[in-house]
Each structure stands twice: as structure tokens, then as C-alpha cells.
Amino acid sequence: MAARVGTWRDGVTAGLLGAAGVALWFLVVDMIAGHPFFTPDFLGRAVFGVLGRGIENHGTTFFVVAYSAFHIVAFVLVGCIANVLITGVRKAPQFTAGLALFFAVFEVGFYFLALMLSSANVMGSLAWYQIGAANLVASGLMGGYLLQRHPEFAGNLGHALDGST
């Protein structure tokens, strides 16, 4: 039971670190551009715009708060999934390289998606490299925390990649 609580606690912590890193990144970018809270307002309007007419009548504060809640929940979910996968690799270390490969492919796919949406003018003023930098911040914070909590993962990865038995 205590192991499960620790697994979820580590996942939630990793997710909160990633969410905070991305939020801080975009706050700094928005402040430099002279438009505080532009990004969460813009993304909140995009995400919650699917709810239909009338939603656009809400102000910036509504969209910033609503998107921030969505953002935190999404990152906590990703952090929990990542931590469960890393914890599961303890039982089957042969999957360590596959998990690392999955992460690399996911990251590259994410950058291509951001590039595609940015070039299609779907995302307006958000440049793909700003999104990519925010993703690197989140990956670094979450990955650094999870690697600190699971130091055996790096050893398993090295062993899986060196081809020794």
C-alpha cells in the first residue's frame, strides 16, 4: 500500500513540476512580449471554445483559471503515467530501452505537431520553438525528478543499450 501511495505521490509531484515549469516559461515569454497571461488566455479560449456559443463571453480571468486547471490535471496525469511506467520497468528491465525510445518518439512527434500547428496559423502567435522550449523545460523537470526518484532506471538503460546480457 505504501509503495502505491509513493508511486502516485511521485507522479503527482513530477506532473506539478512540469506544469509549473511550462506555466512559468510562458509567463516570462508573455511578460517579455508585453502581454501577461496571453498564452493561457489564448489556449483557454481554444480548448474551451469547443463548448459552444456563449463561452466567448467570459473574460480573460475565466480562461486563464480554467486553462490552468486543465493544464495542471493534464500534467499530473502524464506524470503519474510516466512514474507508473518507470516503476514497472523495475520488474521487467528489458523494457527500459523501449520506454526511452517511446519517450524520444513522443517528443519528436510533439515537436512536429507544434511545428505543423504553428505553420498552419492554427496557434496564432505561439511559435513552435516557444512550445518546444516549454516542453523541454517540462521534460527536464519531470525527467530529472523521476530519475532522482528511480536511479536504477539509468543503470537499466545503460545495460539495455550496451547489448550485454
Fold and architecture overview:
With 165 residues, this protein is an all-alpha fold. 78% of the residues lie in helices and 0% in strands. The protein has helices at residues 2-33, 38-48, 60-88, 96-119, 128-149, 152-162. Helix 1 (2-33) packs antiparallel against helix 5, helix 2 crosses helix 3 (60-88) and helix 4 (96-119) packs antiparallel against helix 5. The protein is elongated and about 60 Å long. The relative contact order is 0.15.
What would you report as the Rg, rounded to the nearest angstrom?
18 Å
Low-pLDDT parts are none
Biggest sheet character: none
What fraction of residues sit in β-strands? under 5%
Q: Tally of extended strands?
A: 0
SSE order: HHHHHH
User: How many H/I helices?
Assistant: 6
In short:
The protein has 165 residues and is mainly alpha-helical.
What's the structural blueprint in terms of helices and strands?
Blueprint: H1 2-33, H2 38-48, H3 60-88, H4 96-119, H5 128-149, H6 152-162
Helix pairs in contact: 1-3, 1-5, 2-3, 4-5
